[in-house]
Amino acid sequence: MEKLLLMVCLLMAITMPSTHGLDRSPKGVDKWFKKLPNAKEKMTKLHFYFHDTVTAKNPSAIQIAQANITFQSPTLFGLLRMFDNSMTVQPDPNSKEIGRAQGIYGSASFQDIELLMTLNLVFTEGKYNGSTLSILGHNRIFHEYRELPIVGGSGVFRLARGIATAKTYWASNTTQNAIVEYHVVVLHY
């Protein structure tokens, strides 16, 4: 009897619509797209801090590749890091975590320290839990404000587009660790 109850619960969990009543099955997505012509576009504004920890006991950003010239280059050209950074509501790393920023960044300029960034903002708390925003852009890390395009999303952010504005809150040239403040404006349905 216990095995039958466990199987029924598992089947219900697999077949039920996902986070916040949004059906993510192929049929659910088709149904969502059919309603799209009548859907009203929404604007959502988000604010959080991204913690990029390169040197620590448990780093969140790890070097995965480099070019033959990376360490002879003043811009570290060709350096690639994969990251899984905490996103928090305050600059304090111990403040409430709302998600993870997961992706890759690489030094992409011979002249300046500028990054090519591709990442997903993966929300794990609140009304956006289970949803993502995707960013692909150019990050001039020494500029006060950097504008990165939002090129898509999932969950409540399906068909998202918008802008993420990054500003360094704190950084160490010695450790290469940084806390970056993000203001996000996103349009979605």
UniProtKB/TrEMBL annotation:
Any one of the GO BP annotations: phenylpropanoid biosynthetic process
Gene3D superfamilies tied to this protein: Allene oxide cyclase-like
Keyword field: Apoplast, Secreted, Signal
Keyword Secreted listed: yes
Name of one Pfam family that matches: Dirigent
Location of the protein in the cell: Secreted, Extracellular space, Apoplast
Major localization class: secreted
Gene Ontology CC entries for this record: apoplast
InterPro entries, A to Z: Allene_oxi_cyc_Dirigent, Dirigent
Family note: Belongs to the plant dirigent protein family.
Subunit details: Homodimer.
General function of this protein: Dirigent proteins impart stereoselectivity on the phenoxy radical-coupling reaction, yielding optically active lignans from two molecules of coniferyl alcohol in the biosynthesis of lignans, flavonolignans, and alkaloids and thus plays a central role in plant secondary metabolism.
Protein name: Dirigent protein
Taxonomy of the source species: Eukaryota, Viridiplantae, Streptophyta, Embryophyta, Tracheophyta
Gene: LOC107816061
